[in-house]
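1st attempt posting a full record on here, be nice pls
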Amino acid sequence: MRVVLLSGSPRPEGNTFQVVEECAGVIREQGLEAEVISLAGMKIESCTACSRCGKEGNCVLGDGLAEIIDRIRDAEGFIVASPVYFGTARGDVMAALQRIGMVSRSTDHFLSWKVGGPIAVARRGGHTTAIQEMLMFFFISNMIVPGSTYWNMVFGRDPGEVWKDVEGMNTVRLFAENVARLIKKIA
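the predicted structure (as tokens):
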């Protein structure tokens, strides 16, 4: 059993990536595999609504997202984390989620009954808007989103500042544990 964790930060070692790595560690402690994928260095395009994914079985845009979709398709869980820019999730994160969702809906509905959810990382604000924005993807894809003790948000600007947000880190750790525990219960 495996969970794919997508870090939507352009910074390969930034706060969002650090939060994702911490969640992956929690999932591994629960006895599941955890695969971290970073969008850093990628140029994710927006969906063009070409409908070719329904015929081809995967997205045909050649930016590397089709390989990520294959990894998600074979997993039982999917967590996505995004830094917050101007009060919302990064544009390329939402573009990726929209394309992943379109491929699922146009093919075998591989997202249905996967367990996961969103995490937002920001300096000061916009967390709840970003979480709500990403959460729409999980719900419309018929996925299961477990809770935690608070919203899945962590505060931090400069790399490493997220570790000072003890409550935020504890919240996302419990969320990651709940994802793993629920996957095991469903199995």
